[in-house]
Every structure is written in C-alpha cells, then in structure tokens.
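Narrative progress, year one. The postdoctoral researcher (J.K.) led the effort to move from monomer predictions toward full complexes, under supervision of the PI. The following entry was the first complex the group processed end to end, covering 898 residues in total.
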Amino acid sequence: MASLTEDSATAGEEQGGVRRRDFINVAAASFAGVGAVSVALPLINQMNPSADVLAEASTEVDVSAIAPGQAIKTIFRKQPLFVRHLTPEEIAAAEKVSTSELRDPQTLEDRTKPGHKQWLITMGVCTHLGCVPLGAAAGEIKGEFGGYFCPCHGSSYDTAGRIRKGPAPKNLMVPDYSFTSDTVVKVG
Amino acid sequence: MIRIGAFLVGLFFSGWLLVSAAMGAFTFVTTPSAPTAEHEFHKKPKDVDFSFNGPLGKYDRAQLQRGLQVFREVCSACHSLHYVSFRDFAQLGYNEAQIKTIAQEWPTEAPSINPETGEATTRKPIPTDKIPAPYANDIAARAANNNAAPPDLSLMTKARHGGSAYVYSLLTGYQNPPAELKKKFPDSMPGKTTHYNPYFANLNLAMPAPLNTDGQVTYGEGSPKPTVDQMAKDVSAFLTWTAEPKLEQRKRAGTAAMIFLLIFFGLCVGAYKNIWADKKAHA
Amino acid sequence: MSFPWANEYKPSTAFTRYLDEKLPLPRFVYNAVGAGYPVPRNLNYFWNFGVLAGVALMVQIISGIILAMHFAAESTVAFASVEHIMRDVNAGWFIRYAHMNGASMFFIVVYTHIFRGLFYGSYKPPREMVWHLGLVIFLLMMATAFMGYVLPWGQMSFWGAKVITGLFGAIPLVGEPIQTWLLGGFAPDNAALNRFFSLHYLLPFVILGVIVLHIWALHIPGSSNPTGVEVKAEQDTVPFHPYYTAKDGVGVAAFFIVFATLVFFAPNFLGEPDNYIPANPMSTPANIVPEWYFWPFYAILRAFTVDFLFIPAKLLGVLAMFAAILLLFFLPWLDTSAVRSGHYRPLFRKFFWFGLIPCIVVLGYCGGSHATDGIVLISQIAAAYYFAHFLIILPIIARVETPKPLPNSITEAVLASNAGASLQPAE
C-alpha cells in the first residue's frame, strides 16, 4: 500500500498527469460507488407506496342520493373524502366573501367544476395536522363559518371549504376529479 | 460566531412567540371565545365504591355474574364483546357445564361454515368461541342504529376517562335537558335521535337509556334488588372485568413484588453503608 | 484509563489468564465499570441515573423481544394481537404493562440524567463529545418511542402517527413526497405499521451501540462530579467497583420500586384511554396528545400561531420544535463560563431553578392539555423563555456572573461538607 501511493505520487509529480495505474484505481473506486448507489436506489424506493396502495388511488362516487344541505363521507386513498351538496344560501355565502381577506385566496368557482357549482368535493383532512374535520355527517358542528370545523386545534372552514380561522395554513384540498355523468364523480 | 448566530436565532423565536402571544392576548380580550355547552354542562363521573378499587381490591364474583346477566339480557342486543370468549367466564366462578349452557343459550349464534356445502351459516356457540357480535359487520351496525354504530364494550372501561365510574355514571345519568341549556345553547339540545346525558362528552348520545325500569332484569335468589342503580353498578363491574381480566393477579403479584423490593432496597442500603464505611469515616 | 493510579486487571485463574490473552473482554469490563475505573468520591444520587438509564434500556429490550414473539404487525390484527397478549399469553399482561411503563421510566430517568448534566455543566470541555453522543441517544430514543406507540394500532397510535408524519408535510416542496415515502401510502396504514415495527425493533440496538460510544468518550476524561473541579490526586477518587456499584444498587432498587408501583397498581395511569379504541381513520379523537414525555415539544410545536412573512406558522412550529432539541448540541459553546457546577454559579442557579425548570413544567402541562386560547398563550410565553434561556441568557450569564470560590480539590470539598460547612449541595 505504502509503496503504491508513494509510487504514484512521485509519478504524478514527474509527468504532471494521471498515469494508467492511477486511472484504474480511480475507475475501480468509481465503479464501486456507482454500484453502491444503484443498489441503494431500489432500497430507498421500496418505501414508496406499493402497487396495491396505488391501485386504490382512484374511486367513483354516486352523488344522486345527497340532498341539498347534506354531505357524505367516503374514502379516497384511505383518507376521508367529503362530498357536499351546497344549498343556494351556502353558495351565496361563499361567493359573498372577497378573496383578498382569505388566507388562501380562492373562489368557489376555483374549487368546483363548471356547471356543478353546488358540488363541493374536498378531502376530509385538515391542512393543519391531518385531523378529520367535523361537519359532514348530520348533527356535527360546522363551525362559525358554516362549513367544517376541526376539533383538534379549532380550524374553521367556510362553505367553500376555505380556511377562515384557526391554525390551518391552506384550504381543504380539492382532489383531482371529474363528473363522468351528472350523478357520478370519478375521483383521482 | 456561534454565540452571535444563537443570539439571533433566539431573538427570532422568542421575539416572534411574544409577538404571537401579544396578538393572541389582544384577540382574546377583544373577541373572547364563546363558552361552549360542553364546558358548562358536562359533568365528571360520580364517585362509586367498587370492590375492585384500591391496591388490594378484588372482583365480587356474584356481582360479575349479575353483570353478565344484565349484559346478556340488555346490552348484547346492540353491543359486541369482541375480545372475550365464553371460556373466560370460568373466571366469574362458572364451571364447565354452566359455561357450555351459557354459550348454548346465548341470544346470537356464532358464524360458521356448513361442513357439507361450504356455505356460510351460523351455529350455537361453544365455550371456545368469542362472544358472537349482534351485527355481522360495522355497516350492518350503522344501518340498524341511525348511522351510530354501537361500540364494542370489551375495553370500554379502559377506553374512557373515569373508567368504571364513567360507565356507571353514563348508565344512570340520563335526564331531561336543563331549562338553562335550552335558553343558552339551543343548538346543544338533544335531537330526534339523541338523548341528553351530562356525563357524555358532547352531552347528547344516540343510545337511549338502556336501563330504565327497576326490575328490568330478574336477579336470582339472594341477590340485591335489581334497581337501575344496582344493575348499572353490576354491569359496570362486569365490563371492568372484560377490560382487565387479570386485575386480581396483577394486584396480588404487585403486593408480593413490593414486599420483595422493599427488603431488597433495605439490603442495598445496608451493603452501600458497609462498603462506604471506611471512606466516610476518615473522610 | 487516564489516571495512573487506576487498579490493573490481574486474571487470577488459568481460564481468565487464557481469556485475557485471546480476548481481553473481562479486562475491558473491569476497566469500564469495574475496579479499574477511578471515579470521583463525591458523586451524589443524581449520578445514579446513567446506570439507571442502562437498566431501563435492558428492561425494554428484554420485554420487547418477548412481546415481538406474540405481536402481529398487520393493521387488521395488531390491536387484537395486543389484546391476545393481555388476555391469553401466559404472564402477557405483565410483560406488556412492563414494556409500556418501562418506556415512561426510561424517559423519567433520561430526563433526570439530562437535567443533571445541565445543572452540573457536564456538557463543558473536556466532555463535549459525551454530551453530543448523549443527545444522539436521546433523539434515537424519541424516534423509537414514537414508533413503538404506533404498534398497538389504537386511536392515539394512528392519529399520533398521522400528526407527526404530517409535520414533514410542512417542509416546502419536498415535504409531501417525503411524507408519502415515510408512510408508504397517503395515510398511516399497513405499510407504515410494518416499517415502524421493523425500525422499533432495530433502533434499541443502535442505541446500545451509541451508549458504548457514550461511555467510551466518558472514560477519556473520566466522570465529572458535583463540584465541577477535576480530579487531581488519588484520594479524590474511589474505584467504581465496589463503591459505585453499591451506590447504584440502592438506585436500582429504588427504580424498581417506582416501576413496580406503576406496572402493578397504576398500569394505565400515564397512558391515554383513547388508545384502547382500535384505530379508525374516519374519526379523530377529540384531543390528540402524544405520550407525556413529548408534551413540552408538542407545546412548542403548537405555540406558533402567526405566519412570519412568507413562512407559514405550521412550518415555524416544526422548525422550532426541532430547534428546541438541536440547540442543546451547541450548549458547550453557548455557556462559556469556566465554572462547571451550578453550585458555584449564583446567577446561573437562579435561572436554572426559577426559569428553566418551571418553563419546562409549564410547557409539559400545556402540551398535554386541550389547545384552548389560554393554554396556547401560556405555552407561547414559556416557549419564548425556553429559547431565550439557552440562546440568549446563558451566554450573557457566562459573561457577567461572578462565581463563588471553588474548592481546591474534591477531597477538600468532601472534608468541608463532612464538617458541616456551607458547601451543601443545593438539590
């Protein structure tokens, strides 16, 4: 070992460049490094959601049975999904608010699909620390803005699912979805 | 460098916390948060004297048997007892034949498979079975109960603050909502499918008073009168046993362990004094 | 070992002589925690807690390995398998309650150990490395405890996992992919439960390894002591064995008395009732609280309610919570006072007993309570003091304080206190 390093050091000094023997050493070490990284990648990636978990990443919801003013809780990606049929008063209340006074400025239009303004579809996951807000099931408190209320740390959401009061930083997330017919929604 | 950096970081965190506190205090003073109905009307569980309280407490076998009777005749219509098997009733003082009879006569049957056709069916429970649940699954339980699934009771006395006393207080705590509640918090009045009970966390629960008349269950000879209070006490004791069947072994082992450890402690102190005697003496 | 008067290991039988030649393990132990390690003679009972932490870790490892023989890390049966342990496994209730309360005992002991180090200046040179390794152990312990709490798959397990992994979601841009990667899904589920079990089994052995380094680093300068004066001569020390093994025996016996009281007479006193309800992703408990040993940090997390310019309050809370632990790594350079022990530092001592300790107690209380406006307000003030104490007050004290005169040697301090002089420790 000692003679090898000494040897290459003097050689490098004499020729002012890399000799072939050094090149082989460097190449061998580089290959070992590349090998280690390419093994590490799958070992890290295995932690990501597996195929069966991803397969549940989309779901269809029949909304025909939900009367105005009612909401249902269903499951999307193992998390609660709120589907809410807004009443005209709730739509009016949501549209009355000017976006400039919102923490996360969005209009009701931004958060619903064109022609389906009465359908508010959001994740039932508080953007603060992930609790399930109340207000979707009958008899649950809806908070002072008439939408949803998170019991964990008191975040209140309005009738467009927008954060109005409390520690949550963002509006309730609207997942990707589309209406496949007037009464069926495909989420995800 | 480290100290200057630390000073700035400290100034930022502490300063911003104090600013937030000041802003919080300001809104606290200007718009005090409204009092809630739960805050004003919710009651702490009553004080109950159970035989199993205290470091040397034991279950009262006769009481547990009465509690089982109340559970079977009243609670089991809606509530499951997932983690308890019929064989466990030996701990209540029943012998093998009695347990067999209890299992045979249980109001619900155990799920099974027809050995010839392979189709799902039910059969009379046997001692090694878990207590069969009244509903096949959670959805059935919801559908039959206005969307409020009755919870499993195996661990109920460990799953609520106040434990056994809470279950007893809840069972005996049904009452008409106070007039003041109607005046101050009309939203917190019980609805069509809920019932007022100040011992329940949000004051109104879906379960109607399950024990409502004295003598609802007929106790055997030599037992106390089956008043609502007595039945509630008995079934709370029974549910304490279902949640903590090893309570007696635990307290017995604990007593032995404490005696052993106290002697051990004394010996350790003695050994310590012994070994340090020379150092302490001329030090 | 560093002191020339340390006893030397002398194998007495043919077998130990043979062993000493081939693998000198007995010599190693003799020098580490035997008669070959000279220790200051004046250690008080606060110095027991290092050994007690080791005892607590062994309790956890042994009870944990046994529980793993009966536990099923699968989200549909995990809760039932814990009940199976509690009801059907022979002595299962005892082992499970011991493991559950053993975690609390471990934290009680380690917190005492840390506060002893804070008061007596054990983090100061030449023992910075001992302090840093200790903090690494503390971080590993917190990770292990958190993942262990998830395993019974009760309501608090599930929602605790959700809230804590949710903290990573606060990191800008990469936060959500990291959260999904940690959980192996979009919410805690079977994948998360399985990996937490795997790591919960692994990490205690990593802790064991770091403890070996912690003790190794300690043996280079030798143990500190309540006066903070370094060992000068042989009469300042006694051999670890039998003197401190005897004293630790008293501590271990006391430890087990407290432990047994919890396990046998109040096994669920420190726990949350909600964890006896099986996990339900569709319903959040009214008040999500972690185990008591995380309460102060949870209070700091929740204390940030106002955004700072473009930094959202949630991210500030997460940063502050991690900063609250990481700042302890910088302590050797923040507190520059040459005097180690709090006994001889009048100003430091006041801030320690009337500032830091009440501040931590208040933070703990707030972290365990429902986050009402009043509680948040109190925790904001307490958290502000916490950061100010370490980052601003300590460096200033180190500059302005006039320490009391130090004894010339450990022996002099011992003689003075035996004579009833005014050097009584201020415990």
